[in-house]
Amino acid sequence: MKQSDQPEHKTGSPVNAYRRKFLKGLGLLTATATTTAVATAARTVAEPSWGGATLRDAMGDFFQDQYQRMTPQEISEALARIERKAKRKYEREIQCDNTPPIEGVVFGYALNISKCQGYRDCVKACVEENNLDRGGQMEYIRVLELDKNDRNLHNADHYYNHELVPQPGKEYMPVQCMQCDDPPCVKACPVEATWSEPDGIVVVDYNWCIGCRYCMTACPYSARHFNWGEPQIPSEELNTDCHYLGNRPRMKGVVEKCHFCIQRTRKGLQPACMEACPTGARVFGNLLDPDSEIRYILENKTVFRLKEELGTEPKFWYYTD
Amino acid sequence: MNHYNGLILIILMALASPAPSAESSEQATPPQFPFHVVSTKDQMQYYPCSSCHEYIPANPAPRVLEQAPHYSEVQHGRTNMWCNTCHQLEDKNSLRTVFGDPVNFDDSYLVCAQCHNRVYEDWQYGAHGKRKKRWRGGREIDNCTHCHNPHLNPGFSPRQPLPPPGVRKGLQHQPRQRHRQCQKWTTCPHNQPEESHETE
Description:
- The complex is a heterodimer of chains A (321) and B (200).
- With 321 residues, chain A is of the alpha+beta class.
- In chain A, 31% of the residues lie in helices and 15% in strands.
- In chain A, strand 5 and strand 6 form a beta hairpin.
- At the A-B interface, helix 5, strand 10 and helix 10 of A face loops of B.
């Protein structure tokens, strides 16, 4: 059999045949790869690989400095980039500003736990106001349900789902960022992406955050939240009134937190949670103004702060009637 | 030494005596918290009351009001109160104080304040009640009757809460075990897994 086959392969040995076959296959493969590459290149021209942004915007984002170090010119350019990005992603016109802190104002919050009924209206208002991730179901406010006469937070439950609230024998205690005066989260940040503003609000520069989540472990109130995925916000529910340090649309892989609705309170409006509270249990105001409601509460009511012994000096007080 | 002691005592007394008077003068002028109460007259269903009561003879006797569109009984004050405790008998479009002075419906907090004076004080200074719109500038606050029904149960009625927070996969919530159920002098065993958890 082998001898009869031999004349047919006189021109080339079996090795050569394999070689030819191999080269043919390689050529085909190369051709396919090239066409794919060409196709990819064509697609790249139509839709740039830098997330739909222009090269200028992508570079601007990439080389953007930390907020506190940016010049006013750089800030206005950054705000314009944020607005263009939101326009591309959500097809909505947003107004992103950086309203500065008001002179002579340090914000404080007081919450009457004998009035809170546990309705969670504040939670919903917060989610809608602050463009929180609906996909990851992020919520800045957690309403703890406690037994009356037992303020042990070990026994608190914030997943309660009763038919009716308030349940007899229970009391409700919303917990959110306390805007500490000596914030441990700020100390933990290795890149200074979070800091305390002159009006006492602890803010995050989302562009500068590297997503290491050290601040989350440093916070004794679990008030910081991480965007594990790209935030999902229905376009029609997007709040278009944004602040650079506040509720502007965030990106994947950054930490965010309650900022006392910086976009509202710096313009004199109430935080969304306070406006939504039907019982009037929440009181917000200027700690430096002796005629403010919050100062009356601090001076005349029995107040306490959560985990006060840690020395973080929270600016969020709980009081009872 | 005795002379010195006496002298020191006199000096101390002289120093101490003006202090209380200064405190009392401070207390005499409490800080003024101007506020504006949100008007609810246009939301009142049957206001002006005189549109019906013009034609109904005034009858101050306590009874069950059978054909009245408004409240037929008063639970407030545990049967010690009747309509004319707070409503003017002659001029039905206004309220009255216990001394009979007329009070506008939008100033109804003045009627409440006569008995609930401690809450009134808190409300006046912002520790009770709901402020509207802005945290600074002119205070605009809800009236007592915005939240509290003055005729029947004044409290908030229980209602269904909004849904609880979502839980990330793998972190499903298990019913809370009480913290340290066992006696303090025994070693606490590990919490037994829930039965439902085992079946899953």
